[in-house]
Design brief:
The chain is α+β, with helices and mostly antiparallel strands. The chain is 20% helix and 36% strand. It binds cobalt (II) ion.
Amino acid sequence: MLGRVNHIAIAVPDLAAATASYRDTLGATVSAAQALPEHGVTVVFVELPNTKIELLEPLGEGSPIAAFLDKNPAGGMHHICYEVADIQAARDHLLASGARVLGSGEPKIGAHGKPVLFLHPKDFFGTLVELEQV
Ligand code: CO
């Protein structure tokens, strides 16, 4: 079911500082910041030869990463995103297997304009998993 790692996401308290650190200290190419109000985050993408890193900062009230940053004030790895060919088939398979899909269970359009779903971290060894249809 799983394809490539699409991205690894890191929650950060200060997106401008994190962008500068990846760009200037690590020498990476970092995209312009993109506000995603529907997801409660502002994001930049660090472009790497084999994958992307997303740096996420909370946006607005009730951001889904606010509680994570309360527990990890310096920031931390937030989720890993795997590619799937058919997100509805993946969702149906996961639900039939007893895994928990977060939210309504219906895919939302993610930061790359493609349908995404999130899976409960307690079902996957303490790691929040995102699936993205590519
Ligand atoms: Co993501």
